[in-house]
Amino acid sequence: MAEEDDAEKQTIESVMGFSGFGKKAAMHFDVEKMFAETRRSAQEYTQSVAIKKGVETGGAEGVGEGGEMRSGDSSDDDDDIIGPPLPPGYGAGGSGSQPERSEEGESEEDDEEDNSDFLHSFPLSHEVKLEHGDKPVSALGMDPSGARVISGGYDYTVRLWDFAGMDSRLKSFRSITPCESHRICTLQYSITGDAILVASGSAQAKVLDRDGHNKMQCPKGWQYIIDMTNTKGHVSMINCACWHPKIKETFLTCSNDCTLRLWDVNEKEKQLNVIKGRDKKGRKSAISTCTFSKDGKMIAAGLVDGSIQLWKSSGPFTRSSLHQYTAHTPGTETSCITMSHDNQTLVSRER
């Protein structure tokens, strides 16, 4: 039995790697040798990663203590590689190296440069923020001299700003509600800057003086009359209004009652002329925007049926002189229309 116990003990010792149990049987480890092997394996791993990444330092490379890469030819600290290796696409020229750019990237940068040149063409060196109110601003106007600005919004308020008399608080010098509970859709100074045209969601446009005092209000037509030429004013909300570019007392309005109306500031009882908006089949069509040509000889309007029509401002107004019935999608609103200075080009916007 003793021989069998000794044989079993020797078998356990050969398998487990020690000769006995207890304090005397504890294994002895060479700590310095273990650290040296760990350091060597770390250096070999760092070298293998550097070779795979294609890092070139211009000379014989070595690995110092702690796994740091070092150059054998350069003693300059700026040439040492610190941190992880460079990503693919970067050269070995140091910190000044740039990634390779594709043609698409170059075109994007060219577009950004073009946009920056376009923005720098505007006087953007100084900027102020004028607080109109909490609700959106729906109309803006500036007098011809550039000394005053007028703003109107969905809060039914019109504010007048004077740059010469403005202090650091940037407050408006007057705030009025000219059209009661109707949002402001058009604000425009006359060509001399002494009058302001105000159009809102109501059927009556207003003319204010330079300081915002009421000067003239257009009359409202009788809505039960079928023929709109027999009414003395609009019977439905006004969508747009503008001054004549040559005659300072004349202005134009358009409305959902399918008419354009020419007005004179000195004639307060009735409009001068009425233009009916009609589609291709001769049916009535509401008018969403209007304007004069730069010389004042033509009137242009955008209709809800998608057409753009032009009339001579001197008349007759029975039929449009020029028209394009397929300018926009039928049933949409043409929110803006303007003409070039040579009166040969017209631009419109569909909302």
Protein architecture, described:
- The chain has 351 residues and is an alpha+beta fold.
- It has 3 helices and 20 strands.
- The protein has a 4-stranded antiparallel beta sheet, with no helix packed on it.
- It is elongated and about 130 Å long.
Write the layout of secondary structure elements.
Blueprint: H1 2-16, H2 31-53, E1 61-63, E2 69-71, H3 103-120, E3 137-142, E4 148-153, E5 158-162, E6 174-176, E7 184-189, E8 195-200, E9 206-209, E10 214-217, E11 238-243, E12 250-255, E13 259-264, E14 273-276, E15 287-292, E16 298-303, E17 308-312, E18 322-324, E19 334-339, E20 346-350
Antiparallel strand pairs: 1-2, 3-4, 4-5, 5-6, 7-8, 8-9, 9-10, 11-12, 12-13, 13-14, 15-16, 16-17, 17-18, 19-20
**In percent, how much strand structure appears in the residues?**
25-35%
Which word captures the global form? elongated
Structural class: alpha+beta
Care to count the β-strands? 20
What summary fits the major beta sheet? 4 strands, antiparallel
Pfam families: WD40
WD repeats: 130-162, 231-273, 280-312
Biased composition (Acidic residues): 103-116
Protein name: WD repeat-containing protein 70
